[in-house]
Amino acid sequence: MTKPTVNQFVQMIKDKTEELYGMGTDEVTNNDLYYVVCEIVNEEINQDWAKTEKTYKQEQPKQVYYLSMEFLIGRLLESNLLNLGMREVCNDALKQLNLSPEDIYKEENDPGLGNGGLGRLAACFLDSIATLNYPGHGFGIRYQYGMFEQRFINGYQTELPDYWLKEAYPWERRKVDEAVELQFGGSVHMLERNNGSLEFRYEDTDKVLAVPYDVPIVGYNNEIVNTLRLWNAEPVTSIDPTTDEQSYFKQLKNNHEIEQISSMLYPDDSNDEGKRLRIKQQYFLVASSLRTILTNYKKETQQSLIHLPEKVVIQINDTHPSLAIPELMRILMDEEDFGWDAAWEITTNVFAYTNHTILYEALEKWPVKMIQNLLPRLYMIIDEINERFCQSIWFDHPELRDKIAEMAVIADDQIHMAHLSIVGSFSVNGVAKLHTDILKNQEMSNFYNLFPDRFNNKTNGITHRRWLLLSNPRLAEVISETIGEHWIERPRELNNLLRHTKDSALLDKLKEVKKKNKQDLAEYIHKTTGILVDENSIFDVQIKRLHEYKRQLLNIFHVIYLYNQLKDNPNLDITPRTFIFGAKAAPSYYVAKEVIKLINTVASVVNNDATIQGKIKVVFLENYNTSLAEKIIPAADVSEQISTAGKEASGTGNMKMMMNGALTLGTLDGANIEIKDQVGDSNIFIFGLNAEEINEYYQNGSYNPNEIYQNDERVTQIMDQLRDGAFGHDVEFTDIYYHLLSTNDPYFVLKDFDSYVEAQQLVDLHYRDQDKWLSKSLINIAHSGKFSSDRTIREYATGIWNLQKQL
Ligand code: 26V
Hints:
Strand content: 15-25%
Keywords: Allosteric enzyme, Carbohydrate metabolism, Glycosyltransferase, Pyridoxal phosphate, Transferase
Pfam families: Phosphorylase
Number of domains: 3
Bound molecules: ligand 26V
Helix content: 40-55%
CATH architecture of the largest domain: 3-Layer(aba) Sandwich
Catalytic activity: [(1->4)-alpha-D-glucosyl](n) + phosphate = [(1->4)-alpha-D-glucosyl](n-1) + alpha-D-glucose 1-phosphate
GO molecular function, one term: pyridoxal phosphate binding
Protein name: Alpha-1,4 glucan phosphorylase
Radius of gyration: 27 Å
Number of helices: 33
Structural class: alpha/beta
Largest sheet: 10 strands, mixed
Mean pLDDT: 97
Distance between the termini: 16 Å
């Protein structure tokens, strides 16, 4: 396809505006113009999309389906323009019409269909799959309400509903003719057919219509468009208006219950609670997706399902979609007449499972009763899977006999979804080296002993197209000026920057880029919070979900310590710093919400205290999401990755900030370790206990935070300030004080405090030598190519999925 020139694009915008609104471009709003540009882009996409689908139909390649309860795709207009090679043309055309591209792009609602890292990873993966010419698609849920909008009132987090669909979403296409009908609840009866086979008959089930909305996933510069299919739950029948009043209201209530299924994203990524609606959502996703996958397989290949694993691989994103395993068994046995063994052979060659957490509270376990009730036939199958699995250990692996209870899929009236996922898949992967090692040697060691070949590592990645090209155009340009544009297609070539670490002209340009990005962020901070920050200060950034294990508390303890020092000595020689936070807490996570209030409280004290001469400022930006991340990351100097070692599976914000030239201040956790391996010890600030040491403390119980509280004066002061209401808030934070001591500080905040402060002092010192700092920053950028999700996806495609590129 030939791309339009600027002048042609100008004309297209004018024509489309006339067509849609009957007006000129100077008479319509930015919102109107947003839809105009989307229409133009959609016309381009539709052609490539149809072409891609046709190729897949003809060539029948093996395809991967990525099942995920979350996709945090971010705004799509600018990224679609970028991937289509039309961004510059569009920007120039808009400017020619005296319009601001940025103002038009930000009209788009950022769909918050995910909680955090897991959902954003899924989005980066789809971008890389399409870009690398792999046939692969996402399946998710079209939640009516996405991640809540966060507002601070009086320093407290409050949550507002995110009804992101109130304006039309231009990227989705409703495909009502591909809707599928699903059943929940009721009862199952087993009947024997004449030929001796079994039939399962369902009675009194609730029926739900799953209607797909397809979103195009545009590859970069390759005319490939894959699909993200998002399911919407709707009633199968509309209400009969002639019915009597009682039955009318009953139907109304029923229909409402059905629509509930896709109504909202669960905003809690820290707690596995047995919630009926969440199971319904999970089954809704997997049952409708499997139906699409199998229907397409049959239509296109005309082959028996025995060959399914040759054409289909399904990656399940954490255990959330793991009901797909028993659901495929059900379809194969009850609808397709396979026996158990054949069905199991097919199923276990189709599924691959990614684990994203080892936090016990977040490992999914469903009460048996609930699954029995909602999905009676699936429960029978899970029970059989468990039975056979336990038997196979007993007979084939007598050495593991005493581990059966620990490994069972069903134990203590609960279904362990991680166990089900491991037993039912051919691949189990962790998301960073350390994380995979912990899975193999600790959390899932019994399973690793049983199935050593099943376990593998796939270190996470991020799409450098969104996280550098799109969000940091200034840096992208300087890179291209220096080493050419090859890095865009082959991000490993960012390595070529290493030849320029002493090039002072380049370092000057880098400095200029960071400065401008910081000015932009400072302006945004001023506009949204009223806080004036020093653009020459260190921008020290921690942006991620609020969790105890991520230790935002450690960060704010250091801020309080600095503030205390400055109060003692206002002339203290420190490099000015701006501490920037962004984080949402799960609405029911009390401690996390208290930490938010604490950070906001410290911020208002610090920012309004003239005696410290503005040497430190604290900014907590509201409503952290993908679009806000795109603003903050290009401006970061320091990337805070300070989780308790062994707890953060990988992290991906660490990769994004590294790619944008920030230096990591972090623990030896998750992918930080691999970042350190890339950049070397002198280009990263590492502190704190390592995972092994933490483990030893857990094992021998010898950690005593009270000792540190008593003996480290800095800690004593901070803790007492919390207890005594030193920040003008009575005793609000005594809860944090008592929580830390009474739970024995399970995340080692006090234990790591000293080494964190020391690392922070090093940051301060190193920043003073700007040339050195800039060359460290350059080294980080140069090594960030490894963390492109293109690398990750290649590893999945060759190591797990066995996919061929479509050329
Ligand atoms: C957990 C749960 C628990 C049950 C209720 C609903 C719910 C929803 C989401 C989650 C997600 C927890 C797992 C997660 O987000 N893991 C993160 O995955 C990132 C991508 O692999 C990784 O970089 C982060 O380190 C990891 O915490």
